[in-house]
Design goal:
The complex is a heterotrimer of chains A (497), B (346) and C (318). Chain A has 17 helices and 22 strands. By secondary structure, chain A is an alpha/beta fold. Chain C has one domain: ABC transporter involved in vitamin B12 uptake, BtuC (Orthogonal Bundle). The chains are: A alpha/beta (497), B mainly alpha (346), C mainly alpha (318).
Chain lengths: 497, 346, 318
């Protein structure tokens, strides 16, 4: 093994991000690392590259234990990384990016011509024909990725970690990148490849390792698994056990919100959606398929550039979140830290914030009322906090999520959009959030749940919309809502036949 | 009430310490007498002379709470003072002069707010423009001279007294109370803090952050207008070159001494005006002690450095550890670098 | 060509256009005499702007430079008055002090992770206060060596004078160009301005570079102070108030992005000369008032800030 981990464990407050993970990378192979958000891929990478300090376990490089303290140290050992967000400087020239820190000099001055020659030489064999004197931002992301790879390979030369390198590339650019990756594999590098595009994973990888909830699930030869097996391993559902779909009374469709042809160019293709009163709509799809983008369009966070939304009162304005909230919409985003909580403000203030914003600044919610509401929701959602005045940033992830739910429930919305509501939270909170969804639906609220957990979707949804490649590809209703059908729809088109 | 006291305790202690120091040099510090219908004494002098900085600090507190900064307030003071003097000179009368000056302040604030909230230009860069051009505009209004005027009603605002108390002091105290009530008795304060902590999440929660930002910069312009009016009324003339010169720095300093983080979020107007009073007491104290007035620059520098060390994101965690009571006011989000919020992201 | 260089071309175009307008109105302005004066009168500003360019490209700001220039003048004047030291020795002492002062500010910015704005604000107070402590009044300098330096000049064709001060500024700009564009340190400065976290990931010694950036700015402010004291033959603690603002304006008008990561040293020279040209024009005109300088500079600032913003959008759309 070129690079291996043994029982690697890393915990964060409230979550066990890596749980005794053992993993091995051979020289001359492309090894894909798979898993949904929160599976532990990025934590594993960060431990390997020294960005995180592991709690326990070993990292072995050519059989020798290593203890990289920083990405620079890991690089010196031989482990280079290229991230999704290109980790080069767009304002420097390509040559400067390639040679930063080791530019050829004479009398302390950079020998520009030698630097350019060195950069050209570093890029030789990568199939790029570019002017290295230009700034990096003048080239496409694909070229930037390859430049980043060239730098990493030059500095490290043994192990190359590619973290979602293809996320913003088109098909032609992906091929360009894969040519480079194949070439490097032939030169004997060990390459760890992370991507949520399964086609690409199958195309380039020799072996696959699947992580889920911080645990190592399986390592397989790419030739030995098919798409469905892979998705099943990733999403963690055994196809044999079917969960019975709950048949709930479907409320009257006169009181529905109808979205027609809404979408956003480059993010999600136009789609239709009718949301009935008291209905739970599940949305399934792999990471990056356009799930979150759909939610953002529905809420006006990234306004739709086509189509209309209507209800029994006429057109619904979805130009921005304010308008959507005024129309009775609510949205608990996927990334709680950056899009959800106001970390420094107290639990109470976070809970009343959306309601206060809707009432306007001039009509403050009386202090006594705020305290009553806060305590009410703390009790009802079982938010674990010493008191309502604690800054919400100090709570655990699950409790932060409950605070955000409380914030929206306080506005008494008719349509609640939940993007991965149970991600990264403990089992107890998980169950409580599902119970809560059931509860509010019986009161007539409509809910859209986006989730990677199929069991969860099957358990709560009346129907499930499947998203793939930034399109809504199918809708499953009633009896058809099973983990099996969802996996098939996600995995299509190959498996359909 | 108790929480307010705890919030401003460091400022009160600092002020007390400064006063004690000054009293050592000048034991008659607290001697206040009533002559000619006005109170006379060092504390009265401090609250009168501290008026411009206190007023600017009120507006600056809100701007800084949104994670911004307003470098232009000194120049805006000059513009508004010049506008007021020009209006008096034109014979428009007291109320028109006040109206025009305040309108000018609001327009300046609107300009800054538009650059920040609509054009998304960094506040420090956006307000720099008016900081540079503002004095030129003020000179344009005054015609390059010190525009003097003779209007007792107007100069009353700078040098008159109300029940023995200097009018500038009355103005800043009333403004402070007014703005304080406005932000704390309505939801404005909470919304401002919210956009200062997390603009993106606040917008997703339905807060009209763009309008709020513009309003905050306009508030700062309004406060600068009041300060400009007082400065102009006090000397019975508009000095476009020197009115409010470098006061933006004193105002920022007052806000920082008030314990408000430059990274936005929680704010206290009361603590900021206490900060302004601390600065003014130092200024006055150095004068009284017979030191050259310029010494206060060194003292201000030392003060800034101490506060910087105390506020530093790298020092704060250790401090919070030693002093658990402060933990509630420290910010979990700020101490964390942007790329450390990783536990849920993969 | 590179759209990143567009602001530089805009700067040069505006300068040439402005000069053309001046020339059409006052043909006398196209003489080596005016050009020589332009260089001499703006020498101290040009030198300090060289340091400011590096600071701004690194993504920082240095508000202390105006005070440091004043301190330099007072320090030299007092040293020459009270000791028998040669001016060159005083210069060496001064440059050591101002460089160390800048380095200390850079160290604080890095160690405390505080905004450069507020740290250098403290530096501004400190340097100004220190100059007051040395002397409250203006201290004349009557050293023969000083008078020699003041009178040193080459005669250019057309009887214009290229003074020693002008030459020092040109030398400073050339040094600045080499440091910023031809050294590893210079590349690191751009890297810092492009993104501190990324620069760190790529192996740039962020702390060291930050300290060096402000030390360089401190050195240039000291040099500028020397030039200013030669120019005025005195040290006055109230001198050069607000020069930091002019320097920042010159850098931005010179096409450097105020948020860091992009800009050219040569542009700063043009920015300084543009500002000088506006003043010269107003002097030539005679009827225009001096405040138009500030308004025009403010307008130019706005123009360049919006131009940079537009270019950023353009790059994102690409």
């Amino acid at each position: 093994m070129l690079l291996a981990t043994r029982d690697l464990t890393k915990t964060f407050p409230g979550t066990r991000a890596l749980d005794a993970v053992s993993f091995g990378l051979k020289a001359g192979e492309v090894h894909a690392l798979l898993g949904e958000n929160g599976a532990g891929k990025s934590t594993l990478i960060k431990c390997l590259t020294g960005a995180y300090k592991r709690d326990s376990g070993d990292i072995l490089f050519e059989g020798q234990p290593i203890f990289p303290q920083s990405t620079l140290e890991a690089q010196a050992i031989g482990i280079g990384t290229v991230y999704q967000e290109v980790n080069l400087l767009p304002n420097l020239t390509v040559a400067e990016n390639l040679t930063l820190g080791h530019q050829p000099r004479r009398f302390g001055m950079i020998r520009t011509r030698a630097m350019i020659a060195q950069a050209d030489e570093m890029l030789a064999g990568y199939g790029l024909d570019i002017d290295v004197r230009r700034t990096l931002d003048q080239y496409s992301v694909a070229v930037q990725q390859i430049v980043a790879i060239a730098r990493a390979v030059h500095l490290s030369g043994r192990v190359l970690i590619l973290d979602e390198p293809t996320a913003s590339l088109d098909a032609r650019e992906v091929q360009m990148l894969f040519d480079v990756v194949r070439d490097l594999r032939a030169r004997g590098l060990g390459i760890i490849f992370i991507s949520h595009f399964l086609d690409q994973v199958f195309e380039i990888s020799d072996r696959l390792t699947i992580l889920r909830n911080g645990q190592h699930i399986a390592t397989r030869d790419a030739a030995d698994v098919d798409r469905m097996q892979l998705i099943t391993l990733m999403l963690g559902h055994e196809l044999q056990q079917e969960t019975a779909t709950k048949v709930r009374p479907m409320a009257d469709s006169t009181d529905a919100i109808r979205f027609t042809g809404v979408g956003r160019r480059g993010r999600i293709a136009p789609f239709d959606l009718t949301v009935h009163k008291g209905e739970v709509i599940g949305m399934a799809g792999l990471l990056g398929s356009g799930r979150t983008e759909s939610a953002e369009v529905l809420f006006g966070a990234v306004p739709s550039d086509s189509g209309t939304a209507e209800d029994s009162n006429g057109t619904v304005d979805l130009r921005n979140p304010r308008a959507a909230i005024a129309a009775g919409f609510a949205f608990a985003p996927e990334d709680r830290k950056t899009d959800g909580i106001i970390a420094e403000l107290s639990v109470r203030e976070n809970i009343i914030l959306a309601l206060q914003a809707r009432r306007g600044w001039a009509r403050p919610i009386p202090q006594a009322e705020q305290i009553r509401m806060a305590n009410d929701y703390i009790a009802r959602l079982d938010i674990r906090t010493p008191d309502a005045e604690k800054p919400v940033g100090l709570l655990s992830g699950g409790n932060q999520q409950k605070v955000i739910l409380a914030r929206w429930l306080a506005t008494n919305p008719r349509f609640l959009i939940l993007d991965e509501p149970t991600r990264g939270i403990d089992v107890g909170a998980h169950a409580e959030i599902l119970r809560l969804i059931e509860e509010v639906v019986t009161q007539g609220m409509s809910i859209l749940v986006i989730s990677s957990e199929l069991d969860e979707l099957v358990a709560v949804s009346h129907r499930v919309i499947v998203v793939r490649d930034r399109q809504h590809v199918s809708e499953l209703t009633g009896e058809a809502v099973t983990s099996d059908t969802i996996v098939r729809a996600i995995a299509a088109p190959e498996v359909v036949a | 009430m108790k929480s307010v006291l705890r919030r401003i305790a460091p400022q009160l202690l600092t002020l007390a310490a400064v006063i004690v120091l000054v009293s050592i040099y000048f034991p008659n510090f607290w001697q206040i007498v009533y002559v000619n219908d006005r109170l006379v004494g060092i504390p009265i002098d401090v609250i009168k002379r501290g008026a411009p900085v206190a007023l600017l600090a009120i507006g600056m507190t809100l701007v800084i709470a949104t994670r911004g900064i307003d470098l232009s307030v000194g120049a805006v003071m000059a513009i508004c003072g010049a506008s007021a003097a020009w209006s008096i000179d034109q014979g428009f009368g007291l109320w028109a002069a006040l109206g025009i000056a305040i309108f000018a302040g609001l327009v300046c604030g609107l300009w800054n707010g538009l650059l920040v909230a609509v054009f998304n230009i960094q506040p420090i860069v956006a307000t720099l423009i008016l900081m540079v051009a503002g004095r030129g505009i003020a000179q344009l209004i005054t015609g390059g001279t010190i525009l003097t005027f003779d209007n007792d009603a107007f100069s009353y605002l700078g040098s008159g007294t109300l029940l023995g108390v200097p009018v500038p002091a009355v103005i800043w105290v009333l403004t402070g109370i007014g703005v304080g009530l406005l932000v704390r008795r309505t939801a404005l304060g909470l919304l401002v803090e919210s956009i200062g902590v997390n603009l993106r999440a606040s917008t997703l929660t339905g807060i009209n952050s763009r309008v709020l930002l513009i309003a905050v910069y306009m508030g700062s312009g309004f406060c600068a207008a009041l300060a400009g009016i007082i400065a102009t009324a006090d000397i019975r003339g508009a000095d476009a070159n020197n009115a409010g010169l470098w006061l933006e720095l004193d105002a920022i300093l007052a806000v920082v001494i008030g314990g408000n983080s430059l990274l936005g979020g929680r704010f206290s107007i009361l603590a900021s005006v206490l900060g302004a009073m601390i600065i003014q007491t130092i200024n006055t104290g150095i004068l009284l002690a017979g030191f050259p007035s310029e010494f206060n620059l060194v003292i201000k520098a030392v003060l800034v450095i101490i506060i910087l060390v105390l506020q530093s994101p790298r020092v704060l965690p250790q401090l919070a550890y030693l002093w658990p009571g402060r933990r509630n006011t420290t910010t979990p989000a700020k101490t964390a670098a942007p790329n450390s919020g990783t536990e849920t992201k993969t | 060509m590179s759209i990143r260089a567009l602001p530089l071309y805009a700067t040069i175009a505006i300068f040439l256009l402005a000069y053309l307008i001046c020339y059409i109105q006052f043909p006398a302005m196209l003489s080596t005499r005016v050009i020589g004066n332009l260089l001499t009168d703006n020498a101290y500003l040009g030198i300090v702007a060289v340091g400011m360019t590096i600071v701004i490209v690194s993504g920082g700001i240095d508000l202390s430079v105006g005070s440091v220039i004043a301190f330099a003048g007072v320090f030299i004047a007092v040293v020459l008055r009270d000791t028998g030291l040669h001016p060159l020795v005083a210069f060496a002492m001064l440059l050591t002090i101002t460089t160390a002062f800048g380095a200390a500010m850079g160290g604080m910015i890095y160690l405390l992770a505080m905004p450069p704005f507020i740290v250098t604000l403290a530096g501004m107070f400190l340097a100004r206060g220190a100059s007051y402590m040395l002397s409250i009044d203006s201290v004349p300098i009557a050293d023969p060596f000083y008078q020699m330096m003041q009178r040193a000049y080459f005669v250019m064709p057309g009887r214009g004078r290229l003074t020693l001060l002008g030459l020092i500024m040109i030398a400073a700009v050339i040094i600045g160009m080499i440091v910023l564009h031809r050294t590893r340190f210079g590349t690191n400065v751009y890297a810092l301005g492009g993104g501190e976290a990324t620069a760190k990931l790529m192996g740039v010694a962020v702390g060291q570079t930050t300290v060096a950036v402000y030390a360089f700015s401190g050195f240039m402010a000291g040099l500028s102070g020397i030039v200013f004291s030669i120019y005025t033959s005195a040290g006055y603690p109230l001198a050069t108030v607000g020069v930091e603002l002019s320097a920042i304006a010159a850098v931005v008008i010179g096409g450097t992005l105020l948020t860091g990561g992009s800009g050219y040293m040569f542009g700063t020279l043009i920015g300084v000369l543009t500002m000088g040209l506006i003043q010269t024009y107003i002097v030539f005109d005679g009827s225009l008032s001096s405040w138009w300088t500030k308004i025009v500079i403010g307008g130019l600032l706005l123009m360049f800030i919006l131009l940079q913003k537009g270019l950023l959008k353009l790059r994102i759309h690409q």
